Amino acid sequence: MTVFKLQDYDDHEQISFCRDPETGLSAIIAVHSTALGPAVGGCRMWTYETDELALVDALRLSRGMTYKNALAGLPFGGGKAVIMGNAQTQKTPELFKAFGNYMNRLNGSYITAEDVGITTTDMAIVNQVTDHVAGLEGKSGDPSPFTARGTYQGIKAAIKHKFGRDDLTGVKVSVQGVGHVGYYLCELLHNDGVELVVSDVNQESLDRVVSEFNAKVVAIDEIYSADVDVYSPCALGATINDQTIDQFKCKIIAGAANNQLAEDRHGEELQKRGILYCPDYVINAGGIINISFEADYHKEDADTKVDEIYQTLSKIFERSDNEGATTNSIADKMARDIIKRARRTA
């Protein structure tokens, strides 16, 4: 494996491979950029089939965090950590402390937080050995409701741009993954009169949204072809790919998952089909925006900043229409321009 020649290596500033045999820790920390400030991004725990897949995930996610923080107007760079392992069976306090010790070796260039497979309780254990942790209970807390709020605002912006309407009553939205973020998103959409179609691997999560929000459940592989206005991926990434793209009946894709496009070219395929795509790192920035207020936390200020995602996406949609370029390429360009300006003035 040649790291520097990987397609997803994007001049990352630092990649750390972390291994502690005593605790079973195998992790990768990727720092993409610190041009705007310390690299901030969550840590996820996942069972990867190969080390290379874990590395690619860390590379893609860390770059996404750089762009996410830039377009959200935050004083952060982008980084991400992945811990290889089963989050249901392999977590121990010793493992998270070992991860925290590796965090200290980066001297604050990377600040971690919870992500897929990781809870605020896990991060509290990491915080016992390092101060380079954000999103802790008692501070900004669980970022999931804020990620959902931003995604909800993004769906509203997309509905306005595509259909010219503000009222969501009767709009049909399919939500793939109804765990933490997906649940809160379903709640917001349900309160606005949206008809929900959902899928998830967890039956308990499905039962909850059916009971509380009258959602209709479809099989995992049927969510892509559901007859809806909006497809909202809120689980893992790369669900927009060669196998799924011809199945979509939706006119909008707007979800909280990271790395939704398996490849950048899939953004072009969506555009050809008349499907409006909300770039993932723009629409799902609510969680990191909330964390940015942690030093002097006021929820109302965080909510106001999260709601600006509506305006940011509206600008991207307008530029996409005017320039004939895909929404994901427009967002990338806007983010890179912000980072270039920061480097010139550093």
Descriptive account of the structure:
- With 346 residues, the chain is α/β, with parallel strands linked by helices.
- It has two domains: 3-68 and 77-126, Rossmann fold (3-Layer(aba) Sandwich), CATH 3.40.50.10860; 144-283 and 322-332, NAD(P)-binding Rossmann-like Domain (Rossmann fold), CATH 3.40.50.720.
- The protein has helices spanning 51-71, 93-105, 120-126, 144-163, 180-191, 203-213, 265-272, 280-283, 286-291, 299-306, 309-323, 327-345; strands spanning 14-20, 25-33, 39-40, 43-46, 77-84, 110-111, 172-176, 195-199, 216-217, 230-233, 252-253, 276-277.
- Helix 2 (93-105) packs across helix 3, helix 4 (144-163) crosses helix 5 and helix 5 packs parallel to helix 6.
The CATH topology of the largest domain is given as Rossmann fold
Percentage of helical residues? 40-55%
Number of helices: 12
Global geometry? globular
Mean residue pLDDT: 95
CATH architecture of the largest domain: 3-Layer(aba) Sandwich
| The number of domains | 2
CATH superfamily of the largest domain: NAD(P)-binding Rossmann-like Domain
Instruction: State the total count of DSSP E strands.
Output: 12
What composes the largest sheet?
6 strands, mixed
Strand content: 15-25%
Compute the gyration radius: what is it?
A: 19 Å
What is the CA–CA distance across the termini? Answer: 34 Å
Which runs of at least 5 residues are low in confidence (pLDDT < 50)?
A: none
- Helix vs. strand class: alpha/beta
Secondary-structure element order, as H and E? EEEEHEHEHHEHEHEEEHEHHHHH
Under CATH at level 1, the class of the largest domain stands as Alpha Beta
